Amino acid sequence: MTRLSVGxxxxxxxxxxxxxxxxxxxxxxxxxxxxxxNGDLARQIGAEFDALATxxxxxxISNPNVDAVVIVSPTHTHRPLVVESLRAGKPTFCExxxxxxxxxxxxxxxxxxxxxxxxxxxxxxxxxxGYAAAKKQIDEGRIGRPFVFKATSRDPFPPSLSxxxxxxxxxxxxxxxxxxxxxxxWFMGDVAKVQAVGGVLVVPELATxxxxxxxxxxxxxADGRLGVVDLTRNGLYGYDITTExxxxxxxxxVGYIRETPILVMTRNTIAxxxxxxxxxxxxxxxxxxxxxxxxxxxxRRPAPVTIHDGVEALxxxxxxxxxxxxxxxxxxxxxT
Amino acid sequence: MTRLSVGxxxxxxxxxxxxxxxxxxxxxxxxxxxxxxNGDLARQIGAEFDALATxxxxxxISNPNVDAVVIVSPTHTHRPLVVESLRAGKPTFCExxxxxxxxxxxxxxxxxxxxxxxxxxxxxxxxxxGYAAAKKQIDEGRIGRPFVFKATSRDPFPPSLSxxxxxxxxxxxxxxxxxxxxxxxWFMGDVAKVQAVGGVLVVPELATxxxxxxxxxxxxxADGRLGVVDLTRNGLYGYDITTExxxxxxxxxVGYIRETPILVMTRNTIAxxxxxxxxxxxxxxxxxxxxxxxxxxxxRRPAPVTIHDGVEALxxxxxxxxxxxxxxxxxxxxxT
Amino acid sequence: MTRLSVGxxxxxxxxxxxxxxxxxxxxxxxxxxxxxxNGDLARQIGAEFDALATxxxxxxISNPNVDAVVIVSPTHTHRPLVVESLRAGKPTFCExxxxxxxxxxxxxxxxxxxxxxxxxxxxxxxxxxGYAAAKKQIDEGRIGRPFVFKATSRDPFPPSLSxxxxxxxxxxxxxxxxxxxxxxxWFMGDVAKVQAVGGVLVVPELATxxxxxxxxxxxxxADGRLGVVDLTRNGLYGYDITTExxxxxxxxxVGYIRETPILVMTRNTIAxxxxxxxxxxxxxxxxxxxxxxxxxxxxRRPAPVTIHDGVEALxxxxxxxxxxxxxxxxxxxxxT
Amino acid sequence: MTRLSVGxxxxxxxxxxxxxxxxxxxxxxxxxxxxxxNGDLARQIGAEFDALATxxxxxxISNPNVDAVVIVSPTHTHRPLVVESLRAGKPTFCExxxxxxxxxxxxxxxxxxxxxxxxxxxxxxxxxxGYAAAKKQIDEGRIGRPFVFKATSRDPFPPSLSxxxxxxxxxxxxxxxxxxxxxxxWFMGDVAKVQAVGGVLVVPELATxxxxxxxxxxxxxADGRLGVVDLTRNGLYGYDITTExxxxxxxxxVGYIRETPILVMTRNTIAxxxxxxxxxxxxxxxxxxxxxxxxxxxxRRPAPVTIHDGVEALxxxxxxxxxxxxxxxxxxxxxT
Lengths: 336, 336, 336, 336
Known about the structure:
Four copies of one chain form a homotetramer. Chain A has helices at 13-25, 39-48, 57-62, 78-87, 102-115, 129-139, 161-164, 166-169, 172-175, 177-188, 206-209, 278-298, 307-326, and strands at 4-9, 29-35, 52-54, 68-71, 92-95, 119-122, 146-154, 191-199, 214-221, 226-232, 240-247, 250-254, 262-266, 269-272, 330-331. The first copy, chain A, is an alpha/beta fold. In chain A, strands 12-11-7-10-9-8-15 form a seven-stranded mixed β-sheet. The model of chain A has no long low-confidence stretch (mean pLDDT 96). Chains in contact: A-B, A-C, A-D, B-C, B-D, C-D. β13 of chain B pairs antiparallel with β12 (250-254) of chain C.
């Protein structure tokens, strides 16, 4: 088996999961190099997985032993790293969101067009067995034509203020909502108009950085069909990602709220646990996504999730944030 | 509408429910008389529902204004009252179990044969919308031919010692199990052999009256198919009646464990309530059963649940109790 | 027991259910008169329940044997009938929505103020054991302070065009949404702003009368908390009413989607049935609501659901319809 | 990291899963050799995972590069291979059941005692996150003292006749039931008495080899507590492993019946898929079990599942088979 030699940039929480996946769970890949601006961290992870370590992402990108680059560094670094990697001719995977601004994201899209280098956008939900099965069933006509898209995303607790700061996270619509906006496009097509509301209802500190802890966005798709996305950074009981497609022949609901298959039945009460967080819910999806990236590169298949998908999901998120700020509905297609 | 004038004998817990049903929920019936050996109780209930009250069941039975008799008095009184009522030519309904001994039950069966008077045995589960729908679907072939019968009956807490005393309740197999044994016969046919175990595992006082708090009986049907019934007097979390039929084309499971349609989702836990007790679970079944009795009498239809059904369910229960006592499997058909 | 002699106006689908409830399920009430402009229907129902029948609602209202009036006639008749009944000094119950326009509803409120006659607005969900238990638990602090309200209402199939016509039904926001808007107020308080979208996505004929088959409304409560209501006239799989309250200490979800307690498990598939329609889902709530009305009148207790509740829920519905028509968010409090 | 060099014997269905796990999912292990009497198969799997391949298990065991041996060959080969491996001083893992007869299993136990070599018995359910969490909660007192053990094991379809043949599989009680009998001992302690019934109810061909397709065993534990295990080789709808412990303070139920987190809601029906088979249900448990084996060997920890556990679970299975054959209850402790 020819293995793809991968370099990984960014060793934060998710980066370390990617390091483990690339090293131990994806047979067609070898993790050959890791980079993080925190050099100590890079060296530690490099040692753990027998990979070259550097604090200079550019060195990793230009390393001739690196066949392909996986980028999971902070969002504001995506544009320069992706552009550099594409220009170096290295097939590149980049975690969502593509960037904090549409201008940056479009620069990335332009680099992809100009270089013709393979690029795959990270939206792991598309690789979750639940969402993948739902897509397949819908494509096969199981529920007829979907006409309403409903999505709920609940984090169990708010992130740190420094993470939530819209200057680095993009704010609740970009940081959390982009997953649901991508699902909306995947299942239903482009969105024409968005109306959104948001508020600081539970975590007053979030107001100091300008983010919301709860938000709701209604979507009007280009052909008039409807959608709604509700987001909370304070689900409290656990991590709950639920999506519904109402179709002319039926409805599909994806999601679950119990982690361990145990019911505890005590006096007058029956209880179970909850899904702790995104790693438990989407562990398999993350692995399958990287596997798919490696397969696509090795077999010269087109990327199933493109920079265009990243740009357009970001466009909805940016439009939603503007609608929320202005109280007006916002035309997505003219949002820049 | 011609209404059936009904007399009700026995005003204990269930008797009072029957009084309410007969008075207010069954349009085709009029409750004209109530009897209980506790005359004060009879007078109180009689006043509440505008019915004649007496402490003498025989007076009720012989009252010419009473068209039909419903008997829900303690089990040891079933035989004499049923026989008297049948001999008086009054269509009679009697709550399960028919009697504490097979000899008594067979005397009742003989009286029914000799008098030709209408008799209906009370097994309310057959009138529960869940069980009725399961029966219909199985009869229509939805799961092919059922080959295994599984039933679980859990009371939330043990009854009083005086109630549990096998001398009045018949013991756990007769008192609780008879419902499941009747379902077994209804869904699968006659039982040839039973093996049972039981124990006093949680409520030591039960040992003083000779009852068990937990028991399990395996059934071999006449044609070799299999069944299992497990019983507990100490379900604790709530009342849980679950029945499964495994068939050649599928399985049907009847039962539920949540009473109120509420999920409460708190930190790391999702919980709901439980079914409190049999009145909540089978309230509708009790009403439908009495309605069915009235319709059968008024429209001269045969009883869907006969004294034979009562005798045979009791026979399995008695055989199970013997198997439990002896540690040997017991032939049901030769049990007397 | 003193019984309340009730007259019932309106014998359509729901009216006949009320007739049955008033006659047979509510001991403290006697149904003494029924009225419907369809005199044949009135006579038929009157005969069935031993009640006086008339095709003239005014005659029923002025009948001295009628202590209290229950109005379940078409919405456009609510205002004149309620005003007449209140002026006649008869305690009055009126089914939702109070009227098709705010002006009419406010006329009804004025009549109630001027006459001081008892009036109770019909919002049966408040009497559903599920919603009532949720309210109780929230009031007791089980989930802390609720900060997001989410409601989904799905009818299994669209109504007739003549029913759906906004000139008689008020349109999807008034006809269906008003239940959710009332719940929003009941659980969270007054709504300041609403944004809504709607469309004819599945049932093109609805466009001919000017109604929508699907709609979504986001709510901003007076204190900034958020809500969202999604409505479909074409749930298809069944009737599904689900409501969630997200609170600072947890979330409560009310609703269920299985009618009969049966799982059917066939090759690779486990299935159950669905809730057919509102009568199955809220049968008990309707009965409890009328019982509550009778108790309130007999015991001179204030109405738990007032004309003010009707007016304010209607105000949100009217605001939502306007937002949907204009694409702008609408201030609820200034909506007239 | 010091890695354990493991040799794997047996490359059937489960053996290939173990090969993949040992090669790619367990960082602390290296798969260095594989053996199967089918030499072509051995060479193919060896090539796939860069491991030495042989058709001679003894050669693998004596290979000095093999630190530890994992045995997942057919049951009748367990005894000689385990004994040989233990005598060679190689830490050994052997898949359940230990052997087809108690005599063989006891020979294995004797070899373990005599050599003092590390041995771990394979009962993967103990490593399933659901069962492990249940055990932990019960040990922590969450349900008080368990007094009834209930277990259901359903295969979705019968195995091949050659597999089912009791001469190689041990029959339904040994092949399937041993998992439940091990759980019974793990949760509750030793079993004193077993009563069992079985039959060929659905798959008549099974009669030709002398196996049953359905069976039920009731257990009386040494201290009088009760248990029941029901087994079917024809669950049909899917793979369903459900276990309940009733305790003095509550009940714990472990199990699930939906594989993919999708509900499909069509007209009047809501459906989901089922768990296909044991690999989907216990994939993680198998991996965790091998990981645990490697950790125990590397860290010189005692085996959490011993040959004694294997012998005693087999003893219950053999006793159940005898009870089923004779119709008598069987004393487990005197079963040889």
